[in-house]
Design a protein that fits this description.
Length: about 110
């Protein structure tokens, strides 16, 4: 059973740009959240590489808590970075979006 579970996470690392560029930027700390990642790797290209429907990937980006560990591990494997790092990047996207929503709410209540 364990072999079946772990086998689903392994994806071949893509060494061509923009994936190799994303790896360098993540390793150097320049990519901090999903928005930063998608500035480097086009959304459609990443969704295809993950073998995920673009519609589902859009929902994940709009609502980061919907990302599964398997999604995070696939992206990490594709880019060639540590899985924990990708989970933190997804978490930072959630925090960024939450702060944006809170700021928007404060702006609405001031009017």
């Amino acid at each position: 059973m364990q072999d079946v579970l772990t086998a689903s996470f392994f994806v071949t690392m893509i060494t061509e740009p923009p994936f190799s560029t994303a790896k360098k930027l993540i390793d150097s700390g320049h990519i901090q959240n999903i928005k930063d990642l998608l500035d480097t790797v086009p959304k459609t290209r990443l969704a295809r590489a993950m073998k995920t429907a673009p519609e589902r990937f859009n929902k994940l980006i709009e609502n980061p808590p919907l990302f599964t560990f398997e999604d995070a591990y696939k992206i990490a494997d594709l880019i060639g970075v540590d899985e924990r790092t990708l989970v933190l990047i997804i978490h930072e996207e959630k925090v960024r979006q939450q702060q944006f929503k809170e700021k928007a709410q404060k702006t609405k209540t001031k009017k």
